[in-house]
Every structure is written in C-alpha cells, then in structure tokens.
Amino acid sequence: MKLVSAAIIALVREDDFTETFVDAAGLRVQLRRGGSGAPLLILHSELGVPGWLRAYAELARDFTVWVPSLPGFGGSARPDWILSVRDLAAWVTWFVRDVGLQEPLPVIGSSMGGWIAAEIATMNDRIFSKLVLVGAAGLQPDEGHAWDYFLHSSREAFEQAFSDPQKATEYSRFFVDGWTRENEIQAEQNREMAARLLWKPYLRSHTLPGLLAGVATPTLVVWGREDAIIPPSVCDRYVQLIPGATARVLERCGHLPEMERPEEFVRTVRDFLTSRG
To answer: In sequence order, which residues have a C-beta less than 8 Å from that of residue 75 and are 6 or more positions away?
Structure first.
C-alpha cells in the first residue's frame, strides 16, 4: 500500500477545535484537533469519539490535542486489511509519521486505545515520551470478567461505561440530549468495527502480557474504581507487567474517566505529563 503525505481535504471550525478530514497513512481520516503547544495524541475507545470532550478542551490549554477517529470508526475509512489491534497499532505509527507529529510525543489511550498504545510501546520506545493507559483493554482480568459489548445494544454499552450516568454531564450531552438517528447509525458502525478487532480472543491478547516487560516508556495507568466494562484487576496487571508503571484509581468513576470525572482526570494526566522523568 502506498502511503501519502497528510493533506487537509475538508475543514469545519467549531469553538475551540477544528474538525478535519486528512489523507494520512493511506486512508481518509477524521481528525479533531485543538489547542497550542507540544502535540498530545489521544487514541479513543471501542465506543469511538462522541465529540470534543471537556477533558480534551482542558488539555488543549497545555498541548495541541490530536484526536483521530481510528480506521473503521467515525468518519474514517475502513480498510479490509485491518483485522486486529496489532494492525491498528502499526497504522497509528504511520499516522504519526505522515501528519508530521514530532517524536517522541505523549499519548493517552482509552480502553481499546490504551491497548493500541501499549502494543506500540512494546515495539518502539522512540515514538512516545509518556504513556497514559485509561481503562485499557488487552489483558485477561485476574478477578471478574470483561462486560460483553456484543450481547447488548450500543445504548446499553454507553450506560454501562458510567458509574452513575445520570450525574455525568457528558453522558447527557452526548448520549441523551444530543443523540440523533445519525448517532445511532454511527454507533452501530463503530460496533461492527469493534467486533472485527476485539471478538476473539475477547478484549485481550494472548501475547501482550509477555511483551509488556519490554516497555521502556514512563507509564501511568488510570482506572475508574467502579469500571463495569473492564475490571480494576486489569489495572493491577498492567502496573505489575510494565516496568516502573504507576496507577491512579478514581473513585465514583466507571470505564470512561475522561467523561465521568473530567476535572480529576485532567489534573491527574496533566501532572504526569508535565512532570520530569
């Protein structure tokens, strides 16, 4: 496959971020970007990118925040050859190169995105300066089990991802008040891509546990205490397996800390990313 240089082919500005489509790493990619300063890459979960989150806007005070919709999610193209999380990990490295992001750069990966970031870090210690894994998939829980997305609807998955959805402003904003027929269709398309990538083995890798010992990137693992999608025991496993990794567990929080506890999440992440070492 021939890779092409990034080229903006559509642009819509809304408030404090831009939403663009770029040609990068051989695909047409939906990209949200905002802020100024050094780049910060965000890799989204299997639920996709609902919009420009409050956490993104807060982090954009210190960084230029890049949030691509990964292949098969959102408005991004879905190539036939991407069949696994490791395929996505390879593609992300090409994306970073083709859009000209200066390496090493920090990355935040949520759930599936955390798994992708971890896979990359096992193979390339030069691409990321710091690694933040948020409710990351990829490992078998020592206790409990991962919630089955594919036995439930997309709307049930959104609700399950929050400890108390009725008290979460961004749950209401994106999944209740702002929910449209187009959102429903997009959620099902995201679910179809997630099934291709995560179905077997379900939400985990057979090889990742052995590979994590090779991660040399400073790593912070962030988890919600009430995560009902991926049990907090997986947080413990990541900390045990990645040399020098530390953890921060947020109370009264589910699978999406960046949406349910945005202020605490941003403080935690900002402190880690701006600290020396």
So the answer is: 21, 30, 69
pLDDT in tens, 167-200: 999 999 999 998 999 999 999 999 999 999 999 9
Kindly give, in sequence order, each residue whose CB lies less than 8 Å from that of residue 84, ignoring residues fewer than 6 positions away.
197
Question: Over the stretch 87-111, which tens digit does the pLDDT of each residue have?
Answer: 999 999 999 999 999 999 999 999 9
**Nearest Cα to Cα of residue 85 among 228, 190, 218, 199:** 199
Cβ count within 10 A of residue 50: 21
Residue 126: which H helix or E strand, with range? none
Q: What percent of the chain has pLDDT over 70?
A: 94
Spatial separation of the C-alpha atoms in residues 111 and 126, rounded to whole Å: 22
Would you put residue 135 in left (φ > 0), alpha (ψ -120 to 50) or beta?
Answer: left
Task: Please say whether the dihedral angle defined by the alpha carbons of residues 88, 93, 49 and 160, taken in this order, is positive or negative.
Answer: positive
To which residue do tokens 């947020």 refer?
A: 250
- CB of 129 within 8 A of CB of 101? no
Order of strands, sheet of 246-250, starting from the edge strand that comes earlier in the sequence: 8-14, 17-24, 27-35, 64-68, 39-43, 105-110, 128-134, 219-224, 246-250
Distance between CA 47 and CA 198 in Å, rounded? 12
Short-list 27, 45, 16, 10, CA closest to 259: 45
